[in-house]
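From the pipeline queue, job 12 of 40. The input is one protein chain; the requested action is below.

Action: predict structure.
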Amino acid sequence: MSLKLRKSKAPPPPPGCPIRACMSLLGGAWTTNVVWQLSGGPRRFGELIHDIPGISPKVLTTRLRELTEKGAVTREVLPTSPPSVEYALSALGQELVPVIDAIVRVGTRLREVSGAPHRHDTPTRRISSRRRGAGAVPGHQGRGE
């Protein structure tokens, strides 16, 4: 005998699925890290690379471009010589900060409950490509080494 299907008590999702829109923005790799760092105020590209260990310049460029196109980040070219660019959270981007804070709180609780350390607890160290060879992975021995 099969169980009777119960009716959901959750309200129906809003039209246009805004949850999907928000998660498509935050779901990209490193996006939450970028928003988190920009929550402290405007940052230049080089500062963000330094602030987010392990992110590649290509990925940071892509994330900043996506966040700018979606209106979460502003990009300001400063009249310096040479010109520099500062990125900052827009009003919409500022609204993401409490969401990320909530995710951090839940993630912390999940780690406490499971007791498992997270693999990102210790930041990765950048290895100069000149010293290790382009594309080298720290601690990885290639074939025949």
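Job complete. The longest strand covers residues 73-78.
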